Amino acid sequence: MVYGNELKSVLLGVRPETLAEAGAVSEATVREMAAGALERLGGDVAVAVSGIAGPEGGTPDKPVGTVWFAWAARTEAGTTLHSELHRLDGDRDQVRRQAVAVALRGVLGT
After folding, report:
1. Structural domain range at position 66
2. Model's pTM, two decimal places?
3. In this structure, are residues 64 and 89 in contact, taking their beta carbons and an 8 Å threshold?
4. Distance (Å, rounded) from C-alpha 42 to C-alpha 36?
């Protein structure tokens, strides 16, 4: 798990400009996280998740329950990258559990 923005940049190659312009909870960031994990850590599939589980931290543009997902996979045809935005309901624990389920469904579908 890479939680802090500095680690997202250092370990996964997320550009500081992406974090500054789009924020940690954004499509651009999770796409760079997933692509960076696949490239830097190896393997055939990588998943990235970034969201606001609550109870605080939400904004009108990104309310609690906003979660971005990205999946990167190596295939015979090359690398694929897919991202999705989900608005999950519930308390912090419920949002986190739902996020795990979405992430795993995405891995199974890659």
Report:
1. 5-109
2. 0.94
3. no
4. 9
